[in-house]
Amino acid sequence: MAIKVNLDLMLVKHDMTLTELSEEVGITISNLSILKTGKAKAVRFSTLNAICEALDCQPGDILEYEQKANGRSET
Amino acid sequence: MAWKWFKNDWSIAGFLLFWAQFAWAIYLLTFVLYSIIFLLGILFDFEVFTPFDLPARFEIQDFTELVANNATTDIFESPIVEINVSTIGTDIQQTWTNSLASVMVLGLNGIILYGLTLLKRILQSLQREQPWNKQNSKDLRIIGYLMVLAVPYKYAIGWLSYLSIQQVQLPESISLLWPPIAWELGLAGLAVLLVAYIFEEGTRLYEEQKLTV
What we know:
The complex is a heterodimer.
Chain A lengths: L2 E3 L1 H7 L4 H8 L3 H8 L8 H11 L3 H4 E3 L10
Antiparallel strand pairs in A: 1-2
Chain B lengths: L1 H7 L3 H33 L9 E7 L2 H5 L12 E6 L10 H32 L6 H33 L7 E4 L5 H28 L3
Antiparallel strand pairs in B: 1-2, 1-3
Helix pairs in contact in B: 2-4, 4-5, 5-6
């Protein structure tokens, strides 16, 4: 996947653990873990909204498009 | 174990699984038994070289005379019957055609056994309420292909039977017909392939939904 999730970076910036974020946004740790490890296939707007609210950031701070070396993105 | 779930589980998947297990056991027994008879026949040159009955289709002229009932005149004007002919103790000589037909009938039993094994696995996952997995769609696709390929395979067996039985002098009123083509089996196979495709798409959607946060 060419979309990189920078959730761990944002958690460090806000000095927050995944468990604390999970409690604040009301999403299970396993689901947040799927998102953090980049295994997620899709993210709901409501999830993104809740995370942005909890971490006081923009969606662009969490998600990042990463160009592959050969110029083609993986699907 | 089998009795336990038969007593407690009355879901359709459970009911079908019971019959699939039952049919699987019967086919396994038949396959093993006939394989042994067949191998013994080859090794010791028994007369029972062709243990399987060969499928054949006959047209019987003047059937009403045979049943001796005038009320049936119109019904049995020219009936076509499909029967399995036993080669044991008949005038059918041991040729490559009936030997090959017998091997192919044994192979058909093996194919059915394999198909039932896959069906059992699908039904077990349905019973566990976990139908959406790649294995199920793969198994269904294999069953579909087996059913479609069974059409020419069965037709080949029919032809070999035809060639074997042709050598026997039949009464004038009975004529041997060309073997039928099992269209229904082929169409059912295509339907199974379609279901397999739907399952594949369902599995993809399920996995996507599972990985949506």
